[in-house]
Amino acid sequence: MMECPECGAANKPDSRFCGECGQPLGTPKGMTCPMCDTSNPPGITVCRLCGARLIPPGVSPSEVPLEPLKPGEEAATEAEGEGVEAVGDLAEDEIAEGVGVAEGPGEETPPPWLKKLEELAVEGGAEPEEGEDIERGELPEWLEVPPDFDEMLSEAARAADEEGVAPAEIPTWLEALRPEEEAGVEEPAEAEASGEVTGLLKGISGTLGIEPILAIPRRAVPLEAVSPASAAYERAELFSAVVREPARRGVTLTERRRTEKLAVSMVRWMTYLILAAAVVVPILLGSTWSERNMTVGGSATAMYQAIEQLPPGAVVLVSQDYDPGVAGEMLPQARAVLHHLMERGARVINVSLTPEGARLSMRVLDAVADDYGYVEGEGYQVLGYVVGVEAGPRSVVEGLLTAGWSDLVGDVEDIALIVEFAGAPEYLRLWLEQVQGPYGIPMVAGVSATADPFARPYYRNEANRQLLGLMTGLVGAAEYEQLSGESGPALASMDSQSVAHIVIILLILAGNVAYFGGRLTGRLTR
Amino acid sequence: MRRLGRAVAVGVRRSLPMAMAMAIGALMLIDFFFDERHINALGGFFLESAVIVVAFALLLGLLNVLVVHLRRIIKREGGWFYSIALLAMALMVMVAGIPGPDNSAVVWIFDYIQFPLQAATFSLLAFFVATAAYRGLRLRSLEAVAFVLTAVVVLIGQVPVGRVLGDVVPALKDWILNVPSTAGVRGIIIGVALGTIATGVRVLMGFDRPYGGEGGSTQ
Amino acid sequence: MGFLAEILGNLGIGQQHALMFALLLPFFPLLLLLNRRIRERGNPPLRPIPAYEDLEAYLGEATESGRTVHVSMGTGGIGTGVTAESLAGLTVLEHIAGHSAATGLKTVATVSDPSLLPVAQDVMREACAAQGYPEAYDPACVRFVSSDKVAYAAGVMDILGHDKVSCNVMIGNFSDEFLLMSEVGARNAVNQVGGTTSPQILPFVYASTDHALIGEEIFAAGAYLLGKTAHVASLAAQDWLRTAIILTILIGILVRSLA
Questions:
Q1: What is the average pLDDT score of chain A?
Q2: Structural contact between residues C144 and C117, judged by C-beta atoms closer than 8 angstroms
Q3: How many Å apart are CA C16 and CA C129, to the nearest integer?
Q4: Mutate which of C228, C232, C234 to disrupt the A interface (most A C-beta within 10 Å)?
Q5: Å from C64 to nearest chain B CA?
Q6: A417-444 in b/e burial notation, b at 16+ Cβ within 10 A?
Q7: Is A272 on the interface with B (CB under 8 A)?
Q8: A28 to A48, A79, A212, A508, A517: CA distances (angstroms)
Q9: How far is A381 from chain B (nearest CA, A)?
């Protein structure tokens, strides 16, 4: 499993691109340079193209994990040398000689680097590596050695001695460093003072002594005098003048924005008023121009004919599938068709795939039934809302055929026609797919205006005409009313609709005039 | 032992949802295509379970509404008074519906509050279409010109007024609705169907996480 | 041909189902092959979709101005017939959630179908956790407004009108209430990106949003925004099958015309 360097997702070992983010991956067969994206063969530490480091310092380029170093072993590698360069100016050869921290048992002489440090300590002033060019300035008071420092030291030593450290706690390698009494190693007399007298490192020589002077501060070097150009003085004066000015409120800016906003919302409200007037005024005037000049389209005529050809007493399944949003279009359609159906003496079974459709259609159904003297249960039957939109039509038909939901229907042939009122294309599609297709029952539909492009192919398909007639929107309802000779709410609304359409066209025009006019004036004023 | 348990837990957390999704998805697909009794029964069971799960999700939704609006009320954020009104009305409808969804109080609320509100909000659409027409149908590009011309032709052709200018406009409108519009709709529907299938197949084959699991497969 | 129909009939597959099967089956091997190929050769060039490009700019603008971005995943949910569109909206939410977890951009996601609520919350939580700030996740950043579409639109209209929204992303399944929401956004000069698969809503999207994603472009969000190999592979598979369908249509036209 390889991890993507960009997003961290796990990938199969032989992928070259990450599955989550699409970025290229590096493979074990070589390394992709993070800087310049070139792939490098394995085993090299810097990129061939741009020289960026491919491997972090302190790591050997080989894929074999490092083994712990044995004492005295030469572990001389370039990386090692580079890594510890910053530590100190101690000679490289000394490092190469013995890197191991542990000394083998039995060795009594301290390693060379320890010796060197000891010498440095002995010299009594911890000269920093870059030592020569630093002057010793005067020490501040708090750095000076207090006169009773030695006493303090020996007191601390005594206290530590009394505490006593259990010998078992001292690791063996540390024990081994302890000088043996009988060996009689001679240590330089000055070193005695610097040997440890207390604690874990007791008896070990060559350690760093306690130095009162831990650091010698560098004396400050005075800065050179700066002489700026005269232009800089002017700019500085200007800047200070600007800063000292009191803050000005952006009054004019906010005022302009407020008027702009006011203008925009005025335009919006005018648009609303114009549209409202376009709808309301023709109704108030009682205009009947559309009623007189209404022409009827082919699909609505076909629907009318399909219902007109029904024998009296035919059973018609009516499905009202819409919500209150499109009720404005669908209710006049339902009203017009129900009038026609009941005039022909058909028996209506009313069902709905939406709960609101069931409620809304009840009002229309009851009102029309009263007009024609239909009695519920005989002339028409209400099955109400059928649950389960996706399988609704199928369950309706199966319920009618097998479960005996209605006495009017016993067999498929009993259903003479299906009239579907679809507020959205999905309801129409469900009825077509689940009922009209499999059972082949004749079907007509009334749809809302936005669903028309979807429904129209079913009507126009002459090879397999699934819809025998189609009624679209409020206009379709008006056409139907015109055909029936029955003036209803749809026809009465046609004038409003015409004026509203014209108003919208004018608004499009006005919008474009405003847009291009604005661009023109912008160009002129520039 | 603990490490083993942890590895198993991580593996289960990552792969179990995806494995379940793949298995059940495959089962539903087989159920759709083949007519075997046992598979159909199992498929029907899963469909019903899905409905039940979604119904419980509704409870989660109500809890979310409560949390959001209570927080707004407590912190006195903007519009907190309306949050009180919302919660009060929700409580009222819930209490009214306790005897059952068909009792007179709930029916009254639906008939005289909800339906008029829905119808009125939807009627706003007409006004919004007007402002959208004013602001949005600017002739910015060639497509916008085609769009506006088509809109104008259909607007005029749909209403009786359009017949006044002769039969040209209604005939043009019919042609537009029958040919380019239907063709475009069919093309979009085919493309959408392919996209839908692709989405489902991705989950079926384990390429996409079914939301709830962690990470996806990286085959 | 009759032999084949007989076998399928015995298996219980009707003719319509057989056609569906024929369309579905090529997807599986295509997806596998293309996935492997893309892993080896990298992403194929994708045609630029301005909506996705400008979405990045809008998100940046929202981050800098300190305002919120509103994400709507449509009025459908998971388990309905429009699951794929809702998943497309969720993919966009995933991208925006990653961006907002990394930059501190405040995101408000609204859902209409309650089945989307826990999933959207999970997406937001995972994004915060991936950035290493699981405690930054706020469960109230996903709001369930209402199951009813019109009430949902009213809720979103309120958010867009009052909540200092700088960017509005509405990708998923919508019906007519889309215009209600997008008009309020346009009125308040909100940067809007919209996309839906219903052809009758597309005019609304075109007229009132800055950028419209038409039909299946919403399914390309995973490839364009997230760059996932699986999504790019499925786009390529869709292209192959679309070419096959076009050829079938052309051949069918020729056969019908000449016969």
A1: 75
A2: yes
A3: 46
A4: C228
A5: 23
A6: bbbbbbbbbbbbbbbbebbbeeeebbbb
A7: yes
A8: 17, 22, 55, 64, 65
A9: 20
Range of the domain at A29: 1-59+82-98
Q: Please report, for the domain that includes residue A472, its CATH number.
A: 3.40.50.620
Residues 6 or more apart whose CB falls under 8 angstroms from that of B128 comprise: C179, C180, C183
* CA B120-B125-B126 angle, 5° bins: 100
Residue labelled with tokens 């190929």: C37
Q: With beta carbons under 8 A apart, name residues in chain A contacting B215.
A: 9-10
Environment class of A45 (CB within 10 Å of its CB; exposed 0-12, middle 13-18, buried 19+): middle
The single residue listed with the structure tokens 């369309």 is C23
HEC readout, A306-360: HHHCCCCCCEEEEEEECCHHHHHHHHHHHHHHHHHHHHCCCEEEEEECCHHHHHH
- C-alpha–C-alpha distance, residues C18 and C10, integer Å: 12
Cβ within 8 Å, pair C183-B128: yes
Residue indicated by tokens 């189902």: C17
What is the distance in angstroms between the Cα of B206 and the nearest Cα belonging to chain A? Answer: 13
Residues composing chain C = 259
* Number of compact structural domains in chain A: 2
In the chain, the amino acid numbered C251 is I
Q: Does an H or E element contain C169, and which?
A: strand C165-173
Q: How far apart are CA A6 and CA C126, in angstroms?
A: 18
Chains linked to B by 3 or more Cβ pairs within 8 Å? A, C
Identify whether A249 is part of a domain: no
What is chain A's alpha carbon radius of gyration, rounded to the nearest angstrom?
A: 50
pLDDT at A104: 40
Owner of token pair 């199951």? C147
| Separation between Cα atoms, residue B67 and residue C39, nearest integer Å | 45
Could you tell me if residue A167 is inside a domain? no
**Does residue A201 sit within a domain?**
no
Nearest to A357 by CA among A395, A329, A337, A397: A329
- Model confidence pLDDT, tens digit, residues C96-119: 999 999 998 999 999 999 999 999
Q: For residue A189, report the phi and psi dihedrals to the nearest 5 degrees.
A: -60, -40
Residues in C closer than 8 angstroms to A454, CB to CB, are 199-200
Give the pLDDT confidence of B40-96 residue by residue, as tens digits: 888 888 888 888 888 888 899 999 999 999 999 999 988 889 999 999 999 999 999
Residue indicated by tokens 């609520």:
C117
Q: Which chains touch A (3 or more CB pairs under 8 A)?
A: B, C
What are the percentages of helix, strand and coil residues in chain A, rounded to 5?
A: 50, 10, 40
Give chains near C: 3+ CB pairs under 8 A.
A, B
Q: Please tell me the distance from the alpha carbon of residue B77 to that of residue C53, in angstroms, as a whole number.
A: 35
| Amino acid type, C10 | N
From residue A110, how far is each of A100, A196, A419 by CA, in Å?
A: 12, 14, 107
Tens-digit pLDDT profile for residues A368-404 = 888 888 888 788 888 888 876 677 888 888 888 877 7
Other Cβ atoms less than 10 A from the Cβ of A312: the count is 8
A324: which 2 tokens? 């209150």
Residues of C in contact with A422 (CB under 8 A): none
Q: Under a CB-based contact definition with an 8 Å cutoff, are residues A451 and A476 in contact?
A: no
Compute the nearest-CA separation of B177 from chain A (Å): 7
Q: What is the DSSP letter of A46?
A: B
Q: With an 8 Å Cβ cutoff, are B111 and A328 in contact?
A: no
Q: What is the ipTM of this complex?
A: 0.89
**pTM, rounded to two decimals:** 0.72
Q: Do B211 and C176 touch (CB under 8 A)?
A: no
Q: Give the single-character DSSP code of C225.
A: I
| A433 domain residue, yes or no | yes
